[in-house]
Write a structure and sequence with these properties.
Layout lengths: L13 E2 L35 E2 L5 E3 L2 E2 H8 L3 E5 H14 L4 E5 L6 H9 L3 E4 L2 H10 L6 E3 L6 H10 L3 E4 L2 H10 L6 E8 L21 E2 L4 H10 L4 E7 L10 H21 L5 E3 L17 H19 L5 E4 L3 H4 L3 E13 L2 E6 L8 H5 L6 E3 L7 E7 L8 E9 L7 E5 L20 E5 L2 E6 L4 H7 L4
Parallel strand pairs: 5-21, 6-7, 6-14, 7-8, 8-9, 9-10, 10-11, 10-12, 12-13, 13-14, 16-18
Antiparallel strand pairs: 1-22, 2-3, 3-4, 5-15, 15-16, 15-20, 17-20, 18-19, 21-22
């Protein structure tokens, strides 16, 4: 295994019993196989190393899910290391010659930063917390980009102190504040986040390419152009490119192609007005994935081909050299690599519905409550002859909206003590988790080659006690 200079060795592994009877397949080679289904159609959206076992169990990374639940307790998140690495390689292969940054907001821990760095990706962070965790893990700061619509003075100071590669300017007020913070003899590379006026994304709350939301500087009303003129006049700031992010869960290429045309048009105007040829164009991320079998996902190889062709054509028409392309996948790398396990606490039939209550919920996954996301939970650990019935999987929290999956088919004899697994749980679950009801956030366990190791420990009552200093 290759190791980046300055990156610590991975933590020691602990071996769990090898998954019985069926050996999980190796991760697929680089390429589109990373999103092909497994032999078991029900595992189509599961991590690529997933395999059905005897007695209704499933193995991920060669480790049986029931063994993980028994050893680490529930709720517990699994992250398939081979799957993460394969998806990183897939992006580098598809976007050859481009810079690929992993969007840390999807999920970040020390091991994840280590894997991303080893595979050759950069990192996109949104706070001093994400930045310092990555850098203290050994991630090269020059391969990090800092985002954020409202960066605090601490965020900016940390970015300058640690030497991040680029800072994305998101508002006019940030220009003077950042310029003043750079040492007189220093020079910080920056990009401008442009709002191109393109509506894209799987939900209104995750569409960020239009003028009616908080991110970026509008192309339509001239805010972006005005900010660019101010940056060019700052001796401590070095404008190296334009940035945009259209939204999340985008499943077609068309919005990205439209963004290329509009941003290249702006780059041409910058050259005409300021004599400045920008060397970089960052199209952000938002690449959609399937959460249930049969759902659409964005074809990454097709996106890369079409974006490259559009960029070459648009630059030729504008008389510009082709800038280096930057993309920022987060969910598309971490999401499909994760599975969360819950233990059933109660089954209640009332009001014509069947509710299956588990030992987690909106404190470890607020996405269904925020965006109406739908999952495909699966009973693991025992076989049953009971036919499927429509059931609603709910959490343990004091909210009627604490629902993880509505009207999903589960065996009619689902009962307390059963183990449920929700796939596609690697992104925006734990990173958005809360301390609601002081339940505590679940641990994260990496699985690979028949071994499992703890990456992030379970949050305990002692953690809550230590933070509460008011008595």
């Amino acid at each position: 295994m290759k190791t980046l200079p300055g990156l610590p060795s991975p933590p020691l592994t602990a071996t769990l019993p090898q998954a019985p009877e069926t050996q999980a397949p190796e991760a697929p080679p680089d390429g589109d196989q990373a999103d092909r289904g497994q032999a078991d159609g029900d595992l189509a959206v599961w991590p690529t190393t997933s395999a059905p076992l005897a007695h209704g169990d499933v193995a991920v990374g060669g480790v049986a899910l029931t063994d993980v639940a028994e050893r680490f307790g529930t709720p517990v998140y699994l992250l398939d290391e081979a799957d993460v690495r394969a998806r990183c390689r897939r992006y580098l292969r598809a976007f050859e010659g481009a810079e690929v940054l992993y969007a840390a907001k999807a999920f970040l821990c020390r091991a994840m930063a280590h894997w991303i760095g080893e595979e050759g990706l950069g990192l996109d962070v949104c706070s001093a917390g994400e930045l310092e965790l990555a850098v203290t893990t050994g991630f090269p700061p020059e391969r990090i980009v800092l985002h954020g619509n409202a960066k605090s003075p601490h965020d900016l100071r940390a970015a300058l102190r640690l030497g991040v590669g680029r800072i994305v300017i998101d508002s006019a007020s940030e220009i003077a504040r950042l310029a003043a913070a750079v040492p007189p003899d220093g020079r910080q590379k920056v990009m401008v986040r442009v709002v191109p006026g393109i509506a894209a994304g799987g939900h209104v709350k995750i569409r960020t390419g239009t003028d009616d939301q908080k991110f970026g500087l509008s192309l339509t009303d001239g805010s972006a152009q005005h900010a660019i003129a101010r940056i060019v006049g700052q001796p401590t700031l070095d404008l190296v490119g334009l940035h945009c992010h259209l939204g999340s869960q985008i499943t077609t290429e068309k919005p990205y192609l439209c963004a290329v045309r509009r941003l290249v048009g702006l780059m041409a105007r910058i050259k005409d007005q300021h004599g400045l040829t920008l060397p970089e164009l960052d199209l952000g991320g938002g690449h959609g994935i399937a959460y249930r079998p049969g759902e659409e996902s964005l074809d990454i190889a097709s996106l890369a081909r079409k974006v490259r062709a559009e960029l070459v054509e648009s630059c030729a028409a504008a008389g510009l050299p082709v800038p280096r392309l930057v993309v920022e996948p987060g969910r598309a790398i971490a999401g499909p690599a994760g599975v969360v396990l819950y233990r059933v606490l109660a089954v209640k039939r009332t009001g014509g519905q069947t509710f299956v209550a588990v030992d987690g919920g909106m404190s470890d996954n607020p996405r269904p409550a925020l965006y109406g996301v739908r999952y495909a939970p699966r009973l693991v650990g025992r076989r049953t002859a009971a036919g499927p019935e429509a059931m609603t999987v709910v959490g343990r929290h004091c909210e009627a909206g604490d629902i993880l999956a509505s009207g999903v088919p589960l065996p009619g004899d689902t009962r307390p003590g059963d183990l449920l697994a929700l796939p596609v749980a690697g992104a925006y679950h734990l990173s958005m988790a809360s301390g609601y009801n002081l339940v505590g956030r679940p641990p994260v366990v990496a699985v690979a080659d028949g071994h499992a190791r703890l990456l992030v420990r379970r949050e305990s009552l002692e953690d809550f006690r230590r933070r509460d200093v008011g008595l």
